[in-house]
Amino acid sequence: QWDKVETKVFNYTGTIQTYTVPTNGRYKLEVWGAAGGSPTSGINDNSHGGLGGYTKAEVNLKKDEVLYIVVGGKGNNDYPQGRVDSAYIEANVKEDGSVDDIVKVRGQKGGYNGGGESSYRVSSGGGATHIAKVNGLLKNIYSSRDKVIIVAGGGGGGGIYTAGAGNGFGSSTD
């Protein structure tokens, strides 16, 4: 039972946001990971990126504690055309041995806070969303992982031949 309910919503900004706990008490936290990217053109009309995970928890917090909120970014919809490598060079060589043009392709970055990079005909994954008692992206706070209160994983990137990507997963310390 909640005596006083005040809701604070944090949306994606591409930065780490903070929340200072106003009073001692039990708090309900909910986080959603970002969706994976969906190819803009594909063979399969169902090749959408996976949904981000969802997690909820109730935790005891103390007045003036600072929480760090990182909202994951959606995966990129574009993908490289070519080999599975995330970076490569492709050259069009003429019969006389001269090079017509060189195309450099690199996978699109994944969504903010850990989304996987795109690869051969697959869009990038969505980023995780987390709330912690330590400042940083998930990849940078591994040694302080006990300070992460709650996390929801991002969804997988959709591919042009797939029927949709995997959804994210969530976890909390309580």
Summed up, what is this model?
By secondary structure, the protein is mainly β.
Topology:
Blueprint: E1 17-20, E2 25-32, E3 54-61, E4 66-70, E5 87-93, E6 99-106, E7 129-132, E8 148-152, E9 170-172
Antiparallel strand pairs: 1-4, 2-3, 4-7, 5-6, 7-8, 8-9
Specify the structural class: mainly beta
User: What is the N-to-C order of secondary-structure elements (H for helix, E for strand)?
Assistant: EEEEEEEEE
Q: N- to C-terminal separation?
A: 18 Å
Strand order of the largest sheet: 1-4-7-8-9
Instruction: Give the mean pLDDT.
Output: 76
Helix percent band? under 10%
What's the β-strand tally?
9
Provide a count of the helices.
0
Main sheet: strands, sense, barrel: 5 strands, antiparallel
Uncertain spans, ≥5 residues at pLDDT below 50?
81-91, 101-106
Shape type: elongated
Strand content: 25-35%
Rg, Å, rounded: 20 Å
* Subunit organisation of the chains: single chain
